[in-house]
Design brief:
Layout (H helix, E strand, L loop, with lengths): L2 H8 L7 H8 L11 E3 L5 E3 L13 H18 L3 H13 L10 E3 L2 E6 L8 E6 L6 H9 L6 E6 H4 L7 E7 L5 E7 L6 E7 L5 E15 L5 E7 L6 E8 L8 E5 L6 E6 L5 E7 L4 E7 L7 E2 L9 E6 L2 E6 L8 E6 L9 E4 L6 E7 L3 E8 L2 E8 L4 E3 L8 E4 L9 E7 L6 E6 L5 E6 L10 E9 L6 E9 L10 E4 L16 H5 L4 E5 L9 H5 L7 H16 L8 E6 L1 H12 L6 E5 L5 H5 L11 H4 L5 H8 L14 E7 L8 H13 L6 E6 L12 H17 L5
Parallel strand pairs: 32-33, 32-34, 34-35, 35-36, 36-37
Antiparallel strand pairs: 1-2, 3-4, 4-5, 5-6, 7-8, 8-9, 9-10, 10-11, 11-12, 12-13, 14-15, 15-16, 16-17, 18-19, 19-20, 20-21, 22-23, 23-24, 24-25, 26-27, 27-28, 28-29, 30-31, 31-33
Helix pairs in contact: 1-2, 4-15, 9-10
């Protein structure tokens, strides 16, 4: 294949996207079919001719050759769009203040922050000692001026990641005496972290290491013992809590707790007042916490025994536990209190009542007030509850936005720090005085060259096909884009796990908006934007609603003139990749191009295999196909199983070889079968990142290079690549 000559040929095909013309002349990889029967316990069987592409060790030469061949094909098809890709990348990078820094927060006499160095991929984590004239504003000013006198560097991630294709620090924790640092790093994206230790007095890296851990660390008060979560090496489940004592071999680490139920995730943390270390275990429908005094860790006492369909999360301040729970029919959750020595739900007393129209998402405790994070009508809010029981809401100024709690590590303050953003407003950090009402702007994300006045954001409600459900949609576009049914549009959604997709600012999307693209965020069922019922209506036997909601949003936006019917792109990743696979099977004619990243597309086979990471945690989300009812239902929408001989949209599929969340072989198999059946003329390209996992490449710039390639492909298909 000769990309140059093909590009010249493509230029005469004025109505044909460049990538389509090139793909028509290029030859995609032809991967071998090998018969394999996937059996279910109830006797059902399915043939999976590409099952052999699975290799848990990532060593099979034939498999690796196929992935590399697909990458080479993608390189060839995308070659003519390299100038556009470079332009998009340069635009995004130009919107980044490269030496930017986070807003410092104070904890135990130190101010902590992260800052970036111009041209570098990773942050520098640092701190400054508290003292006269030292506060968040003065430190920000010093950082902006390049004045780092008095700074103590905790971790220079650039130095740690030097020479590595992938590097990520997932968590770091400072001991209570401020002298030791523990951090967890990952060098391939598989999320099997190694814990390392640093003496902050001397800067010395200690010889102790702990492998195969979660990035979830807690020091005891003795400054020598670190509690951590150990992972199962095969399933990657968080299985055990262990305690490592500095100076002793990791092989001797004491087992503190082991979870026997594989449907539960595990985490560990400190209570708000630092009095307790708590182990939390959570499944999709149940949770349990057990705690021990941080000053003298011993037996971890259960706060309330687990019950199916009862969830709770607790925190402690003063003389009581404060607990968010759905117990007693509180579908949208309520907040209760319990005495410090409570070990049973019988001690729980209602504090913030359940409401049918308001979802309680979380809370934060302070000495003189409390804050409840809520959702209503697909919008977040913060309610400040004062000591006298009165309450006020933090104000917002736009029709669609995202608002949440920021870093508030200290309880003895009148100031609440919170974050605010929207599709047109860059990430902003405020401080609100809960006594006086004074609001201070601490920082707004600097975006060089961006003018918010050129754009508008809207909230609309699309009717679902059931005739009674209204689906919230957040839109953003340039003010000079006419609502005349001619504009290109990118529609994004997720729709699983009760994860809410809130409207926030994106420096990458600005490049789309400036080319006349309308961006639509669909808050479909399966998320939790409209409360817990919104989630329940999009999982298990209701999962089909997630997919039809997305399609119905597309129909509504086209009908209302926001987009041309033949210029709609769709994008989703992970469980949102399942969404993309489903809608492309159900309504391929409605989408010109689909972007799907690390897609969960082989639902039946994956959920039948408990050895695959995360499978057992997911039974209450998708259903267990070992049961015939769930098997049959999942089979109706599983993207891989529902591919047919018909015309599919142009498609960009991306994955990571080391993905621990969605294994690489799912999209690999999907693309291979799609090539066999697809009668459409649009190109299908498949990009595998050979050095990364679920989140793509590490580093702040590499992600934008990946996004630029994908957006170049999309813009070409939508007919705006020349801009």
């Amino acid at each position: 294949m000769k990309p140059t000559s093909l590009l010249l040929a493509a230029t005469v095909l004025m109505s044909t996207p460049i990538t389509s013309a090139l793909a028509a002349s290029a030859t995609p990889p032809d991967v071998a079919k090998k018969p394999h029967v996937v059996k279910a316990p109830h006797g059902a069987e399915r043939n999976d001719e590409y099952y052999w592409l699975r290799d848990d060790k990532r060593e099979n030469k034939e498999m690796l050759a196929y992935l590399n061949a697909e990458n080479a094909y993608t390189d060839a098809v995308m070659a003519p769009l390299k100038p556009l890709e470079d332009k998009l990348y340069d635009e995004v990078v130009a919107r980044i203040k490269q030496d930017d820094a986070s807003v410092p927060y104070r904890e135990r006499g130190w101010w902590y922050y992260a800052r970036f160095v111009t041209g570098k991929d990773y942050p520098v984590h640092a701190r400054r000692k508290d003292g006269p004239g030292v506060d968040a504003v003065s430190i920000q000013a010093a950082n902006a001026a390049g004045d780092f006198a008095g700074e103590q560097v905790l971790l220079d991630v650039n130095a740690l990641g030097e020479g590595k294709d992938y590097y990520n620090v997932g968590d770091y924790e400072i001991s209570q005496d401020n002298r030791l640092l523990a951090y967890a790093d990952d060098t391939n994206g598989r999320r099997q972290y190694t814990i390392r230790f640093k003496n902050l007095d001397t800067g010395e890296l200690l010889p102790d290491t702990v492998t195969n851990a979660e990035p979830n660390l807690v020091w005891s008060d003795d400054g020598r013992t670190l509690f951590y979560v150990d992972k199962d090496p095969e399933t990657l489940l968080s299985k055990r809590v262990k305690a490592h004592v500095l100076g002793t071999p990791a092989s001797q680490d004491a087992l503190v707790y082991e979870e026997e139920d594989d449907s539960f995730y595990m985490g560990i943390g400190r209570s708000r007042d630092d009095k307790f270390i708590c182990i939390s275990v959570e499944s999709t429908v149940s949770s349990e916490m057990r705690c021990t005094p941080a000053a003298s860790p011993g037996v971890f006492t259960v706060l309330a025994p687990r019950e199916r369909d009862v969830e709770y999360q607790a925190d402690h301040l003063g003389d009581r536990w404060v607990i968010r729970t759905n117990a007693d029919g509180a579908t949208n959750f309520k907040i209760v209190t319990a005495p410090t020595d409570s070990t049973s739900r019988k001690d729980w007393k209602d504090w913030v009542a359940h409401r049918d129209d308001v979802f309680v998402e979380g809370f934060e405790l302070f000495d003189g007030f409390s804050v409840v994070a809520e959702r209503a009508n697909a919008l977040e809010s913060l309610r400040v509850i004062k000591a006298d029981g009165s309450s006020d809401y933090v104000k917002a100024d736009e029709p669609a936005y995202s608002m949440g709690l920021s870093a508030n590590p200290e309880t003895g303050t009148d100031w609440l720090r919170y974050s605010y953003t929207s599709m047109t407003t860059p990430a902003t950090t405020y401080e609100l005085n809960t006594k006086t009402g004074e609001r201070r702007l601490l920082k707004q994300q600097p975006v060089p060259g961006y003018d918010a006045s050129k754009y508008v954001t809207e909230r609309v409600w699309a009717p679902a096909r059931d005739g009674k459900t209204k689906i919230p949609v957040t839109l953003v576009y340039r003010k000079d884009v006419a609502r005349d049914g001619k504009a290109p549009m990118l529609q994004y959604a997720y729709g699983s796990y009760g994860a809410s997709m809130d409207p926030n600012f994106s420096i990458t999307n600005v490049s789309l908006l400036d080319r006349g693209v309308v961006y639509a965020l669909a808050h479909i069922r399966g998320g939790q934007e409209m409360g817990r019922a919104w989630y329940d209506d999009g999982k298990l036997y209701n999962k089909i609603n997630t997919f039809t909601d997305f399609i119905d949003v597309t129909d509504y936006l086209v009908k209302e003139g926001y987009a041309a019917k033949d210029r709609v792109a769709a994008m989703g990743g992970s469980a949102g990749g399942l969404l993309m696979g489903a809608v492309s099977n159900m309504a391929p004619e409605k989408y010109k191009v689909i972007l799907t990243l690390v897609p969960f597309v082989d639902v039946v086979t994956t959920m039948l295999d408990p050895t695959i990471p995360l499978t057992t945690n997911e039974y209450d989300e998708w259903g267990n196909p070992e049961e015939k009812g769930y098997y049959d239902y999942i089979l109706t929408y599983s993207p891989y199983d529902n591919l047919q001989a018909k015309a599919y949209p142009a498609m960009f599929v991306g994955t990571g070889l080391w993905d621990s969340q969605v294994q690489y072989w799912e999209p690999a198999k999907y693309v291979a079968r799609l090539r066999d059946l697809n009668t459409g003329k649009g190109p299908v390209v498949f990009r595998t990142n050979m050095e990364a996992g679920h989140g793509g490449k590490s580093g702040r710039f590499r992600q934008y290079r990946e996004r630029a390639e994908m957006f170049a492909f999309m813009l070409d298909q939508l007919g705006v690549a020349s801009k």
